[in-house]
Amino acid sequence: MAPRSADPVAVAAESARSVKQGKVARPRLKKRRVKTPDGQMSLKDHLIELRNRLIKSGIALLLATIAAFFLYEPVFNALVDPVTRLSTDERQVAVEFTALGQPLDIMIQVSLFIGIVISSPVWLYQAWAYIVPGLKKKEKRYALGFIAAAVPLFVLGVGLGWLVLPEAAQFFVGLTPGELTNNIHVDVYIPFVLRLFLAFGISLVLPVILVGLNMIGVLKGRQIIKHWRITVFLIALLAALAAPGGDAMTMFYLAIPLVTLFGIAIGLCLVNDRRRTKRGLAQEQDIEASIHQGPTPLDQL
Question: Is 185 in a helix, a strand, or coil?
Fold first, then answer.
């Protein structure tokens, strides 16, 4: 005997009762963040945007750090080599661990640093995308240009710190008096090296950030020139901290790339300001011309 087909009217009535009683969950629509015509968002939407950017950056950093554990040993040996190579029969130099769990701590620190470098394209983009969420579609291409310039400069800054490290190590070890042994604690040496690399990497990215802020109209070239003394002082201070040898020539050679990049950034900002001014004048002239021309006759429409 064939099964009886369900009555459509009864099925519809049963579904209506289920919805009324809350037994059937209605699909939830994802609420989109509303922006004003000029790209502004509410404080709540800004916090949500910040949370999402941090989550994406954190995931990228976590994955890169996990992968970096496989590179820990060769990278660690390369970091301590500028110091250990200075050891001689007259002056012994060694990098030593002073606690049972210290090797694990240093492994995490070094792997985290490698992860920061590897994941730099992701977190640099997320930082830039959060700073300029209201860009138009035509202006969003600046984000790609920002990454194309910021990532190589960040890596170049880390490489510059790598070139400075042997000179700094030789200076400090050279201060050891007589034939005494210099046993360097690894929990002091490794953080010093990593901070040195990060300082150089981030400092070379700052000029790119200035150009990006100028392109979106937040910062003008004249404003940067107005505070050029502070910029030069900070560059000299950074060079002095990174090259503790104390000689003026070492500081000068370290400050050259930083001053050059800031000079290029200021020049690009001024050129962009001049172009923006010309476009504004052209638009004003077009508007004035259309006003003087008067309304278009109906027979010409």
Answer: strand
